[in-house]
Amino acid sequence: MTSPMFEKIALVGIGLIGSSLARVIRREGLARHIAISTRSENTLARASELGLGSSYTMDAKEAVRDADLVIVSVPVGSSGEVAEEIAPALKQGAILTDVGSTKASVIAQMQPHVPAGVHFIPGHPLAGTEKSGPDAGFAELFENRWCIFTPLPGTDPAALEKLSEFWRRCGSNIDTMDPQHHDMTLAIVSHLPHIIAYNIVGTADDLESVTKSEVIKYSASGFRDFTRLAASDPTMWRDVCLHNKDAILEMLARFSEDLASLQRAIRWGDGEKLFDLFTRTRAVRRSIIEAGQDIDVPDFGRQAVEHPAKG
Ligand SMILES: NC(=O)C1=CN([C@@H]2O[C@H](COP(=O)(O)OP(=O)(O)OC[C@H]3O[C@@H](n4cnc5c(N)ncnc54)[C@H](O)[C@@H]3O)[C@@H](O)[C@H]2O)C=CC1
Ligand SMILES: O=C(O)C(=O)Cc1ccc(O)cc1
């Protein structure tokens, strides 16, 4: 075996993303030691049962001590408290990164705690499913997916390249952008679709007459796609909404305007307008497919079992 990229990698948070990382790190031999830490005893016990790491602790400081790479994979609202907790134990020269779905807020929460001499490089793998917890992860999750970095001014290019190489070895393609651009882009391509899904499923659930029987009976249609997204982790998505508030509100305003226009076209029987929009949107999907982007969540994700012992 070639020598591992890192002597010790610490994973703080071992849910869908942390456990997928653990699995791919093991498969690719990227670290000699994988230290796993999470704040829930049940989750930690489950990670140990699954054999995801080399050591397990509820003390995040202990996990990150001597680690060359520390990856924080917790809900974005918890990133500040985790950074504060681990800061005194971080090794000089270590790379500290995260996987959070929002970037400006994570930077604002974590950066003040990062000691001089530690390379903090915020990141976000655009890969996931609606599942959560250590059972839900799988080593192939990051394959052919983007991982976006939002490096801070003055980031050491060598540390950025090492982290990029790590993610490439996990199967990802790398891009960098500034945090505001990331948050605006993700608001439309990821956050709004989830919010719309939560909303439509909530609306259907409010309509007593169509729920339970009809919703279940007829959910083989488009509604089913929304229920998948609307099954995503409530803590994670509460945090995303609260921590990308401005960009999400901006995109929701645009969305509502366009929805009102669509509503008007339906009310006034403007078939041409409807046809033009639907033709344009069909072209969007075709161009995504032609660009070679795998837009379906892989099957191995579908098969993962939801684990009750998360938290
Ligand atoms: N689920 C998805 O599809 C994706 C999620 N992300 C981001 O990845 C991060 C983690 O998400 P998942 O792995 O899906 O969540 P998850 O719910 O599966 O796992 C979260 C983990 O964090 C731990 N945790 C929570 N608060 C903690 C704290 N204060 N200290 C230590 N551990 C704590 C939990 O015990 C659990 O192990 C989130 O920031 C999310 O925005 C990024 C890409 C995709
Ligand atoms: O399950 C899906 O379709 C997703 O979109 C997963 C996902 C959720 C959050 C992210 O920040 C990135 C990817």
From TrEMBL:
<protein>
    <submittedName>
        <fullName>Prephenate/arogenate dehydrogenase family protein</fullName>
    </submittedName>
</protein>
<dbReference type="InterPro" id="IPR036291">
    <property type="entry name" value="NAD(P)-bd_dom_sf"/>
</dbReference>
<keyword id="KW-0560">Oxidoreductase</keyword>
<feature type="domain" description="Prephenate/arogenate dehydrogenase">
    <location>
        <begin position="7"/>
        <end position="296"/>
    </location>
</feature>
<dbReference type="InterPro" id="IPR050812">
    <property type="entry name" value="Preph/Arog_dehydrog"/>
</dbReference>
<dbReference type="InterPro" id="IPR046826">
    <property type="entry name" value="PDH_N"/>
</dbReference>
<dbReference type="InterPro" id="IPR046825">
    <property type="entry name" value="PDH_C"/>
</dbReference>
<dbReference type="Pfam" id="PF20463">
    <property type="entry name" value="PDH_C"/>
</dbReference>
<dbReference type="Pfam" id="PF02153">
    <property type="entry name" value="PDH_N"/>
</dbReference>
<dbReference type="InterPro" id="IPR003099">
    <property type="entry name" value="Prephen_DH"/>
</dbReference>
<dbReference type="InterPro" id="IPR008927">
    <property type="entry name" value="6-PGluconate_DH-like_C_sf"/>
</dbReference>
